[in-house]
Amino acid sequence: MTASTVLSAGETGTARREQEGGLVGTGALLRLALRRDRVVATAWILIFVVMAAGSAGAVAELYPTMESRVHGAAGINNTPAMVALYGRVYDPTSLGAVGLVKLVAFGAAFVALVCMFTVVRHTRSEEEAGRLELIGATVVGRYAALTAALLLSVGASLVLGVLTAFGLAGAGLPTSGAFAFGLSWAFVGIAFSAVGAVAAQVTSSARTAMGLGATVLAAAYLLRAIGDSTGSDSETWLSWVSPIGWGQQVRPFAGDQWWVLLYLLVFAVLVSSGAYALVSRRDHGAGLLADKPGPANAAASLRTPFALAFRLQRNGLVGWLSGVCLGGLVLGSMASQVGNMIDSPEARDFIAKLGGQEGLTDAFLSAEMGILAVIVAAYGISAALRLRSEETTGRAEPLLATEVSRLRYALSHVLIALVGTTVLMLGMGVFAGLAHGLAADDLGQVGRVIGAAAVQLPAVWVLTGITVAVFGLAPRAVMAGWVALVVFVLLGQLGPVLKAPEWLMDISPFSHTPKLPGGTVEALPLVVLTLIAAALIVVGLTSFRRRDIAS
Amino acid sequence: MTTAISVSGLVKTFGQTRALDGLDLTVRTGEVHGFLGPNGAGKSTTIRVLLGLLRADSGETTLLGGDPWADATSLHRRLAYVPGDVSLWPNLSGGEVIDLLGRLRGGLDQQRRAELLERFDLDPTKKGRTYSKGNRQKVALVAALTSDVELLILDEPTSGLDPLMEAVFQDCIAEERDRGRTVLLSSHILAEVEALCDQVSIIRLGRTVETGTLSQLRHLTRTSITAELAGPPNGIADHAGVHDLKVDGTTVKFDVDTKELDGVLRQLTSVGVRSLTSTPPTLEELFLRHYESELSSESGKHTAAVSK
């Protein structure tokens, strides 16, 4: 894709030149994107593959007999909240259909999120940072960046789909179903890559573009949730207007409806051609939605580093809060029905061993609290990472050249991370507790559930602490916070399945959190976790005071 | 106190790179000090050491009577800083940034703020991400100039400003000087340096190579002479400080070190001068000589890479 393309196109008329010239440089940009994403993309592809293969390996134990599967499927299909959250089991006799029902749509939504992020990262983020302008002025066509981003994301989706299929087949599930499952994930990823491409054209900020994409994803998920749960024994048409719904309707391990993949493909082609049309109509750097003017004067309260940090992180926190509260609401309302869901004694035993101590409802709540704690820990990491992004973009520098000390500056975002995680966890606890209390007709449950949410916090703060410590000690390695979270989650999820040694699983702070509600509370682990978190934060802040500020 | 900034033997290394290699800099209270040097010479690194953002490896640094690293916060109350590449928060308006930075610096004068917004023709309601480079620069300038501080540290503050705004900037700095404020101005814009600076320091490769007033520095450079003489130009070629001599019959063309000008002119008049054109050194030549000598001595390239 170099000058020769341009020359040959020049001989055959302007229309073709416009078309071909628009793609000049795609290959070079794709190589650049691959170079930048080689670690990240490999990591997230592997996470999905391991998650799917690990679950497939575990379900054989969960549903050993035909009866247990039919019971399990009935438990899900007869619980509207479960159907809304995960979808329907379309073949109660199929191990794959029953065992992986939680992953079909839920996993696809995460694949979709990562794909949108990839596309936005290589288009709008680059443009916003001004790097694309540097590249755009060289021999690079108008559509090259978008095409390279889409090729990367589509390629990664397909690799992910095929590897997932191999993983599932390797775990003993039928090959045809394994490929239907893998490709349904891949094609949902491709469809949402196209959504990300449009979102990146519409706004001039990468953050807003991601927000827009996430809203479309949430709407698609909600449509199928309503469509799946309101029909008497099958989905309604609402599930058929949602890309996430199409991914489910491929029905892996339950008929393998391959032709539904075409819906996703046509959707992806139509939506991405919309993105191309937008590229040719807008200016570099601009979006379709114009920025609204802001106030000419700052509010009287905007006078401290903390006020600034809060202002910068406010919208993000509100978004996360609505997300986890909604999650709490759904899980809380499901909790009391969980006994109907799993009727096999082995499965009950398995759940009880895996999570809680007495009562399936408590075990379920306790397990879900653990999952939500991971999500809230992710918020804590991203909130603390603002410190680093503010530094590398040069926005910390003018602040630190005022009377603001480094400690005060760093504390502002650390406080947002600590207070934010607390608010998220407790907010989620309140909603889950109220939903569970109302469903079980026992408002005494509210306090128990809030308590169960609160005991998760020390482990969550350890992750914030790790991020802050690395930010101070080795700022270039700040992504270590995310790595730690992934490692801890894998230890927690796969450790018991793979029968890993106790000391290895004990590395994860989440393994020391009391199993509430229902379990006993020991203060010592909570105190120790809190002290570890505090020590990590102190190390990070002290090192930050002593090191150079990046320019 | 008469010295606002005093730096001697400053060394700062980044891994293998020696960014500052024994730099000296003295800025007296109340002066506008031009801080010049080619790209990558260490200007921004010096400024960031002065702001306590970087920790010096060795050398003495005193800023407003304090230690820029240890006393950073209390010193920052008395200074304002404009970075060369201003990065604003995408969703904060320019007006919010000006107010915030002013308050964090210990307060700002609303009347002065309004006046500066007017003079710089800046719309404070636009969001950070929608400003052009020049307008981002104006936000930082207005924020710095509204604060009541003793010292202004400006790192290429006018990059991206149009000529009209450049003039406004020069007026503002002249006013600041008249109010007795000290200004450290890193710049590549020679007209700006000539118009504003009392003293100039030129650095290259992390060392100070020249410091003094502009007229002192002019003295260090060469004047071009074209003369038609009454007779053959005897002895000119051997005279100290004469360069690039071209002789065409009785007409001579050469450059002469300004400090040798007097002696060379005596030599010419001893032969007899029929006509004489003398071109004084321009600032461009002054700087190019310093910048180029780095290029020729360090990398062997003779192309003048001074574009800013």
Number of domains of chain B: 2
Strand tally of chain A is 0
Please state the overall shape of chain A, judged from the principal axes of the Cα atoms.
globular
Contiguous helical run count of chain A: 25
User: What oligomerization state is this entry in?
Assistant: heterodimer
Mean pLDDT of chain A: 85
Number of strands of chain B: 13
What radius of gyration of chain B results from the CA coordinates? 23 Å
Main beta sheet of chain A: none
The greatest inter-chain interface is formed by:
A-B, 38 and 46 residues
Q: Percent of residues of chain B in helical segments?
A: 25-40%
Radius of gyration of chain A: 25 Å
Assign the CATH topology of the largest domain in chain B. Rossmann fold
Q: Strand content of the residues of chain B, in percent? A: 25-35%
Describe this structure in words.
- The complex is a heterodimer of chains A (551) and B (308).
- Chain A is mainly α and 551 residues long.
- Chain A has helices spanning 3-11, 14-21, 26-62, 66-77, 80-86, 95-99, 101-122, 124-129, 131-136, 144-170, 175-202, 206-230, 243-249, 260-281, 305-335, 338-341, 345-354, 360-392, 396-400, 406-440, 445-454, 457-473, 480-498, 502-505, 523-546.
- Chain A has two domains: 23-290, no CATH class; 301-551, no CATH class.
- In chain A, helix 18 runs antiparallel to helix 23 (480-498) and helix 20 (406-440) runs antiparallel to helix 22 (457-473).
- Residues 297-308 of chain B have low confidence and may be disordered.
- Chain B folds into two domains: 3-217, P-loop containing nucleotide triphosphate hydrolases (Rossmann fold, 3-Layer(aba) Sandwich); 222-279, ACT domain (Alpha-Beta Plaits, 2-Layer Sandwich).
- In chain B, helix 3 runs parallel beside helix 5 (133-145).
- In chain B, a hairpin with a 2-residue loop joins strand 11 (242-248) and strand 12 (251-257).
- Chain B is elongated, with a radius of gyration of 23 Å.
- The two termini of chain B are 35 Å apart.
- With 308 residues, chain B is α/β, with parallel strands linked by helices.
- Chain B has helices at residues 43-50, 72-76, 94-104, 110-119, 133-145, 163-178, 190-196, 214-219, 261-271, 283-298, and strands spanning 3-14, 17-28, 32-36, 58-63, 79-82, 151-155, 182-186, 199-204, 207-213, 222-229, 242-248, 251-257, 273-279.
- In chain B, the strands form three sheets. Chain B has a six-stranded mixed β-sheet with strand order 5-6-7-3-8-9, with helices on both faces. Chain B has a four-stranded antiparallel β-sheet with strand order 11-12-10-13, covered by helices on one side.
- At the A-B interface, helix 15 and helix 19 of A face helix 2, strand 5 and helix 3 of B.
